[in-house]
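The records we work with from here on pair a chain with its fold. These numbers are not coordinates but entries in a learned vocabulary of local backbone shapes. To see the layout at work, look at the sequence and tokens printed below.

. . .
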Amino acid sequence: MLSGNQRVAVLVVALVGTAFASEPIHRQFQFRVHRRASVSILNQYGPISVKSAPGHQVVVSAILHSDKVEVEQDQRGNRISIISRVGAGADAESGMVEYEVTLPADASVTLTSATGTLHAEGLRGDLVLEGNTGNIDVRDLSQGHVHVKTLDGPVTVTNVNDGHVEITSVSGLVALKSVWGPLVQVNSNRGNIAYDGDFGGGGQYVLVTNTGNIEAIAPAYASIDVVAKSVQGKVENDFPLQASHSSVAERVGSAFAGTLGKAASSVKLLSFSGRIHLKKRQ
């Protein structure tokens, strides 16, 4: 049987061991790439942040929250794959990895995380983001294709120029600000959709939600051919639209269609039971 002093010593050793075991583990990987590299990061638990940087390197900094998770990295030519390998007995806390990545702006990027925030900034290559509950934040992109899929995590897309944007969400809020391009499309089941921009570029803008609300804010100079319809919800419009050739019959409070300016862009705002408001920016 251990004496009192021995029990104290064992307890101290155990506590010290636990403290050391919980210390974060830092890893860094550097890859030399050529133009239009492809980078894929799969992280079961934890955030991923990707930003552009000059040069021809991909630099991955990872913080592992325990030794129950490892980072598997592989480069094959211009393609880089990073995967968090979660060991047996790991949970969302011990299996977490935090990634910060810098790479060339023209790289194509795929980011996947079940719980963590996904952030991408300053890119002009194609971008694929897939999440479940974490926030998704995309900003300062140009020319590339942006594909976002999430369950109930909120999605924010800001300052995307000449982009091809497709977002699918189950219930999270989708907010777009200063986003324009050939195609901007949002499909949601229960989530609200907010658009604040000018519907520019002569593109197609399709915002669809089943039970969520849609608020689209545009300037007085917007050039659009718009159709808005909610089967059971209220529909409001702040603009003096001209009659269009749309097959949607205007019904006060539930549907309207018309053109503004030269009708360069096509805009569709559709909901089954949510409220729709096409609002003029003040």
Residues 23-109 form one domain. Residues 8-21 have pLDDT under 50 and may be disordered.
